[in-house]
Amino acid sequence: MYAPAEFTHRRNIDQIKTTDSLILALLIWQAKTGIESQRRFCECFNCLSHSHFNRRSRQLLQLIYQIRQEMNKKVDLNGKFLIIDSFPAPVCQPIRNYRAKIFGGYANIGYKATKKICFYGFKVHAIVSDDGYILDYVVTKASVHDARETVELIENTHPSNYYLLGDEGYLGKELHQQLKQMGYELWTPYRKNMTGAKKHNDHQLMAIRRTIESDFSLLTYYNAENNRARSLIGFQSRLEIAILAYNLAYCLERFN
């Protein structure tokens, strides 16, 4: 339904024994069960080759992206606010941060403030509805500051909600002015030592913003953070599947 013609009529499509829909269903199942290793997942099925499954899953990347975009158009988001934040996607253990060569030139070392640790890998910047639907995301090097990707994220998404909630990482007059020129109002809590923090830090808005932290916890279960891919296309494919699986679960819970 969502697949482009060049994909559904690709060469030797009639000789494929395992359909694209079955591969897609298996990928979502893997994400839902929280199995990180694709090899271990394939071992559950005697007839499923790991190399074949891995190759086919990467071929489906364009289709997965298209399905997610079409879902965005159909989901009715009535909430007043949107939330922006980021989560880390490390590709190795912290002890290997300075020795890791994987994704050289694309990944680097960043800091995870919540756990006060450095990690080597990527950072995923996301925009989420106030009740938990993930609209879009951008992947950057781990060292990229949250505020740097906000404008691009908004430009790519074109959200109809004009009130954005962020954490202290989005403080700064320049970003607020940029978003205001685009027609968006950004609210962030003040740090405790800032003038007027007690009056400005609305506890209701802070509680709504924390919605995204619960969303990221679920995404971690779907292997969005523990991404074991060893190629860029594999990394993106697994991240897309994690977000699609999460959004499908959101839709089933909200609309059923």
TrEMBL record:
One GO MF term:
transposase activity
Name the record gives this protein: Transposase
Per the UniProt entry, what species is this protein from, by scientific name?
Lactobacillus helveticus (strain DPC 4571)
List residues of the Transposase IS4-like domain.
81-248
Instruction: Read off the InterPro entries from this record.
Output: Transposase_11
Give one Pfam hit by family name.
DDE_Tnp_1
Biological process, per Gene Ontology = DNA transposition
Q: Which domain of life is it from?
A: Bacteria
